[in-house]
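Please check this record.
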Amino acid sequence: MNNILKLRTGSVLAAAAVLAAGPAYAAGTPSSTVITNTVFVDYQVGGVSQTQRTAADSFTVDRRINLTVAEVGTVTTNVVPGQTGASTAFTVTNTSNAPLDFVLAAAQLAGGTAAHGGTDVFDVTAFSLFRDVNGDNVYTAGTDTPITFIDELAADASVTILVVGNIPLSATNGQVAGVRLTATAREAGVTGTQGAAITQTVGANTAGVDTVFADTAGVADAARDGAHSDDDDYTVVTAALNVTKTSRVVSDPINNTTNPKMIPGAVVEYCIAIQNTGAAAATNVTIDDSVPGQLTFSTGSILLNGTVTGSTCNADGVAGGTYTAPLVEGTIASIAAGTTRTLVFRATVN
């Protein structure tokens, strides 16, 4: 008697016709997928084929919870004192194998080293979170929408979240404010409603859909806690102006220009020097100076945007400005970082 056995195996997924044409998920096979594996046994007895034997095994793919929060870019966000709606951007990505909600929490650092160096020394005001609607990674009032949680985020999908605040007018050049964004996975299923908290499955594998946390540690959370976090920061980059005012006697009616003295009739030249020691240009710099009642303004004597040599003002400005008794006024369009510009005018001692 000849017994001939032939063994064939095959595997199918539930709803195989649909899944075969579906996308490949970086996060893995979607949870709740039923994977069935069937074995087929063919054999003969005495050269005669016998009835085929089959056996099947099925299991359900469990849910792996994984996510990342990452700042957009690798540099600080430069801001100026008094700026409103200053924003930093973070990408929240669902690397789980199931759709999820994600609750969001933003925090400001309390001292310590910020993400891009420097020490956190101030907080922004009106601290809030927005979803980046137009995809430019910058807060746009009236376009980007307030958000407290990400709703129904599909596996492998990402959302850009903007951390937005106002910079205090008192902030000074080089100061840093650190901010942090944390996302925590929640159950999905009801659109428009933040899902319930998720817990891992305890004990051995079950026949149903188990849950496993697979996330790595963020800057302020542990590995496998169903959450992830990252930091970014604001750095103040602004002008810093030092103003000095000096005077010199140009001539007097007795000595003329040779060793003149501050006697009645003497011509006095004032120099207002504005030095920018900051890291950004100062623009639209408006200067107002009242002429004392003991002096008479010299018409047409205002020179703007001049330079200095050492501590001496040069008479190289451009005529301009206005005089409306007793006020001398002038505007310098821009004073670049690291430069000094002047307003010079003359008056006669009464």
The longest strand covers residues 34-45.
